[in-house]
């Protein structure tokens, strides 16, 4: 089973403590061990989104991690991960973001956390997607 090590204090670059999350929806290799490094907070509302580096087997990629803790948000993220691992599988890296997996674990306060890991492709939207013109969408 794939695992993801996510820093307990992402903003503290000296922090050496990690959450160990288990993969519940894998990308391709179901035995890979991933680690997030240099995580920087880029969004915080219903979910918390970090931009960082995903390290695995000596290789690194620029990624985003979407963290959620509420049951409602977890259902939405699990559904999104299902699309990436099934319907969007052949489109990954071409038409849609590359999906690295959906991970779940427990935080220090025993609250469940779900983490969706995707490739980073640039700046986040400053407006709601529905307000963008049709050509952009």
What is the CATH superfamily classification? Phosphorylase Kinase, domain 1
Major β-sheet annotation? 7 strands, mixed, barrel
* Radius of gyration using CA atoms only: 15 Å
Count up the domains: 1
Q: State mean pLDDT (0 to 100 scale).
A: 85
How many runs of DSSP E, i.e. beta strands?
7
**CATH architecture grouping:** 2-Layer Sandwich
Task: Give start-end ranges of low-pLDDT stretches.
Answer: none
Q: Estimate what percentage of residues fall within beta strands.
A: 35-45%
Order of helices and strands: EEEEEHEE
CATH topology: Phosphorylase Kinase, domain 1
Q: What structural category characterises the helix and strand content?
A: mainly beta
Tell me briefly what this model is.
By secondary structure, the chain is mainly beta.
Spell out the blueprint of helices and strands.
Blueprint: E1 3-7, E2 18-26, E3 33-44, E4 48-56, E5 59-68, H1 71-85, E6 99-106, E7 112-119
Parallel strand pairs: 1-3
Antiparallel strand pairs: 1-2, 2-6, 3-4, 4-5, 5-7, 6-7
